[in-house]
Design goal:
Ribosomal Protein S5, domain 2, 20% strand, four-stranded mixed beta sheet, 116 residues
Length: 116
């Protein structure tokens, strides 16, 4: 579970990242990031009704994404607002696939503290 201070909650925060963020996309998700003036990273997860009309499946996807983020959060440079935009293929992916994809996006966007 992500701590409350590590979450994007307001509509304006999401809009700011959408408009100004650097993107990285693949078949199962997209990640956009923009710097903030804080000394921590904040994450927002977007799972639209296009993924599934069933809330159970959308919530399952969100839980898997939050867990993947929780495992990586300590290795990231602080000071970024990051949104994760899911695509329909994600509902058939396991946690390992989601985690690998997320790591690839973080690497592409130079979000890791040290080179991997």
């Amino acid at each position: 579970m992500l701590k409350k201070i590590n979450r994007l909650t307001k509509k304006k925060e999401f809009e700011n990242v959408h408009k100004k963020g650097r993107p990285s996309f693949d078949k199962i998700m997209g990640v956009k990031t923009v710097g903030n003036e804080l000394k921590l990273n904040r994450f927002g997860i977007i799972v639209s009704i296009k993924i599934s009309k069933q809330a159970v499946i959308r919530n399952k996807v969100k839980r898997r994404l939050r867990e993947a983020v929780r495992l990586e959060i300590d290795d990231l440079k602080p000071g970024n607002d990051i949104i994760i935009i899911t695509l329909p293929l994600i509902k058939s992916c396991e946690l390992k696939d989601i985690s690998d994809s997320l790591k690839k996006h973080f690497y592409r966007l130079y979000l890791y503290k040290t080179k991997r």
